[in-house]
Write a structure and sequence with these properties.
The chain has about 140 residues and is mainly α. The protein has helices spanning about 1-10, 10-25, 40-55, 60-65, 75-80, 100-110, 115-120, and strands at about 125-130, 140. GO terms for molecular function: DNA binding.
Length: about 140
């Protein structure tokens, strides 16, 4: 058995178990049904992923309460990873340096007394990307 194990690059125990199964059952196929039993159904799998799509800031505890089955956070993370959803922690606040904060405060103080006429002279512009329809072709919308 040791020589065969070396040739097939498996442990001697694995080769012995395979040989015993062959002589006992006349097959070498793996038995099905082994491993951890599923705690949640496919419908609950989809519910986990749907919740993350609807609300990207949803927590593990909220998902677990909605599913109604006692599952660990690793299970939820695994299901989200299988759906190609990455876990991201949102910023509690923008990571501003003290200098940035000071400059923002000065900007606001300089314009604190502006009236509607002053603000009408300002042009605001922003470029955002939106997905229109079901395809992934992005359309630029500028305003």
């Amino acid at each position: 058995m040791l020589r065969v194990a070396g040739q097939v690059d498996r442990s001697e125990c694995a080769v012995t178990n395979c040989w015993e199964q062959w002589t006992r059952e006349d097959t070498h196929a793996r038995k099905t049904g082994f491993g951890a039993t599923r705690k949640i159904k496919r419908r609950e799998d989809r519910r986990i992923v749907r919740q993350a799509f609807v609300d990207p800031t949803v927590t593990h505890s909220t998902i677990r309460a909605d599913v109604g089955v006692a599952i660990v956070p690793q299970t939820i993370s695994r299901h989200l990873a299988e759906a190609n959803l990455k876990s991201k922690r949102p910023f509690r606040a923008l990571p501003l340096t003290p200098e940035h904060r000071q400059l923002r405060l000065q900007w606001c103080q300089a314009r604190s007394m502006w009236n509607v006429t002053d603000w009408q002279k300002v042009v605001f512009s922003e470029e955002s990307w939106f997905v229109l329809g079901t395809d992934d072709n992005r359309v630029e919308v500028s305003w």
